[in-house]
Every structure is written in C-alpha cells, then in structure tokens.
C-alpha cells in the first residue's frame, strides 16, 4: 500500500512548530518561543505525525525523547526553510529590495555597540525586519544552545568546535572610580590598591566579571571585598554613590567619563581587552539575510573601529581573543 503524497498533507506552520519543538526539546518552550499555547503546539505535532504516519516524539515521565523520524525530518526542514529564505532573497533582489527577518541576541555589554551597527544596516536595507534581544551571558548561552536566534553577539565564546564566530570589535575594560577618589592622585597605584576598595561586580559568568577575575588570578591578587550588582547601570550608579569601584567596558562609561561623573585611574595591566563576536552553530547554515548582515558587518569594521576608537590591534595590557 503506497503512502499518501506528503505535499498534500504538510503545512509550513506544522514544520515551523515541529522545528521549534525539535530544537527546544520541549513543547512548553517551543510554545513560548512561537507565542502559542502548549495545546496548540501539541495539536500541530499530532497532525504532523498523522500526516507522516510515524511518531516524532515520545514522553518518558517528564522527559521528551526525540525519535529517529524527527531527526530525519529536522534535516529536511532545515533544508526546506533555507531554500525558502533563498527564494525570498532572490525575489526581493528582482523587485529591487531586500526583505527578510534577522533575529539577534546580544549580551548586555554589547548594547552600546549593536544599535550603531543596526542603524547603518537598516539604513541600507530598510525592508529587513530586525529583532534584538539584550540579555546576560547565561541567557545568551542558553539561547545559543537552543538555536533561538540567527546570531548571538557576545564577548566570551565557549570553547566548542561546533560554533562559528567572527570578531567584530574590541571591548576595552577599564577601572572606574568616582571623581576625587584617592587612586586618581596616588603615586603609581597598583591592582592591590584598587582591590582594597569594595569592587562592584556583575553576576557570576558575566564576561566582564570573568575577564577581571582571570586577570586578578594571574596577578595573584586577592579579591577580598566585592559586592554583586545586577547590571552595568546599577554598578555605575554604585560607583557614583561611592559604594565601591568597578571594572567596566569603556563604551559603557564613555558618557560618564566625558561628563566628569566617573573617572578612570591609570593602573598597570589595563585596559583588559576582549573581542565582541558574532556566534552561531556551524551546522545551522546562515539564512540569506544573516549572510547579508555578516558581510555588511565585515565591510563596516573599519568605520566601526574609527567610530569607537578601539581598533582590533595589539595594545598594552592583556589581550584576549573571542575564545578564552
């Protein structure tokens, strides 16, 4: 008995829902990602399984197991959606405009850079819909693992051979104190002098915090006094209130430095440097719009470096690539 023609039984919506469940390995997380209810997701998967005449997922307790048919379908769906994206790009080019969607996630420190890139990108390609999610590093890693975005922009790329990354801009991290702080007039202040004050820090796993902790460990200096605050903005306010000192990205404090609300003492070993990078899984082929964005960023690098005055070249102080 021959199987019915799948072309007459499948819908793009079913495949979209399936892809979300397969990537998230969770009905509830897929529903959240797609803005649907969990029963709606379950119904779409049920209809798809009926069309394929094969089960795709199976629950064992509370764990969702992916069956072989689902893995086979996932590879085909990725190819199908890639072809549709390419077709959309070709049709847009024929019409004289570039259309499509670009979904980005960026760690909070990159929020001082990414809007400048997006403004230039949107000026050239106004028909591209861009969605940007700003999050902390832990959330960025979670989104990367769940493949929720076309690209993730972050400073500390995990050591994973399955990830592709491209450095886009230098991230200088500098010591920050309040105006009139004793370190500003001290004779040759040291890292030990700096850490005698309470150091205001982000949450564990933050790229800036990790870079500073690694530096302190290499210098064999003890961090005896620390206070954890949730955001860079909270840390800046804490320093201005004389709550403590901090190490922050230069771009995060450039306005406060220029206006005299904050100051940066000269300390040996600073600035610390890492690179902000675009990151995506190697086995997730970039959509045509994503490839267009990456090509645009590569062309924009010289202008960005001039604009932010932070070129990606060796400079005094420890230098770190995208990977630890």
From TrEMBL:
Gene Ontology MF terms: DNA-binding transcription factor activity; transcription cis-regulatory region binding
InterPro entries for the chain: LysR_HTH_N (IPR000847), LysR_subst-bd (IPR005119), WH-like_DNA-bd_sf (IPR036388), WH_DNA-bd_sf (IPR036390)
Domain called HTH lysR-type: residue spans: 10-67
Domain of life: Bacteria
SUPFAM superfamilies xref list: Periplasmic binding protein-like II (SSF53850), Winged helix' DNA-binding domain (SSF46785)
Keyword terms, alphabetized: DNA-binding, Transcription, Transcription regulation
Entries under Gene3D superfamilies matching the protein: Periplasmic binding protein-like II, Winged helix-like DNA-binding domain superfamily/Winged helix DNA-binding domain
Short name of any one Pfam family annotated for the protein: HTH_1
Family named by the database record: Belongs to the LysR transcriptional regulatory family.
The protein's name in its UniProt record: LysR family transcriptional regulator
């Amino acid at each position: 008995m021959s199987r019915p023609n799948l072309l007459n039984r499948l819908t793009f919506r079913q495949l979209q829902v399936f892809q979300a469940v397969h990537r998230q390995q969770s009905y509830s997380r897929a529903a959240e990602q797609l803005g649907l209810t969990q029963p709606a997701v379950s119904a779409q998967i049920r209809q798809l399984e009926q069309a394929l005449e094969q089960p795709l997922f199976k629950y064992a307790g509370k764990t969702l197991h992916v069956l072989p048919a689902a893995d086979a379908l996932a590879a085909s769906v990725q190819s199908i959606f890639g072809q549709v994206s390419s077709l959309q790009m070709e049709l847009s080019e024929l019409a004289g405009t570039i259309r499509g969607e670009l979904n980005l996630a960026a760690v909070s420190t990159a929020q001082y850079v990414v809007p400048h890139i997006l403004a230039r990108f949107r000026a050239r390609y106004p028909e591209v819909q861009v969605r940007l999610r700003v999050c902390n590093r832990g959330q960025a890693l979670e989104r990367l693992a769940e493949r929720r975005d076309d690209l993730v922009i972050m400073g500390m790329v995990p050591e994973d051979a399955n990830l592709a990354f491209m450095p886009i801009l230098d991230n200088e991290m500098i010591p920050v104190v309040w105006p009139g702080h004793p370190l500003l007039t001290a004779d040759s202040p040291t890292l030990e002098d700096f850490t005698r004050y309470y150091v205001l820090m982000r949450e564990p796993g933050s790229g800036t915090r990790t870079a500073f902790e690694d530096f302190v460990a290499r210098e064999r200096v003890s961090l005896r006094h620390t206070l954890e605050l949730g955001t860079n903005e909270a840390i800046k306010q804490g320093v201005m209130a004389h709550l403590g000192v901090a190490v922050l990205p230069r771009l995060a404090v450039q306005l406060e430095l220029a206006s005299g609300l904050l100051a940066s003492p000269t300390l040996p070993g600073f600035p610390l440097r890492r690179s902000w990078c675009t990151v995506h899984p190697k086995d997730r082929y970039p959509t045509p719009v994503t490839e267009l964005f990456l090509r645009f960023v590569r062309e924009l690098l010289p202008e960005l470096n001039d604009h932010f005055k932070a070129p990606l070249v060796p400079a005094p102080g420890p230098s770190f690539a995208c990977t630890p």
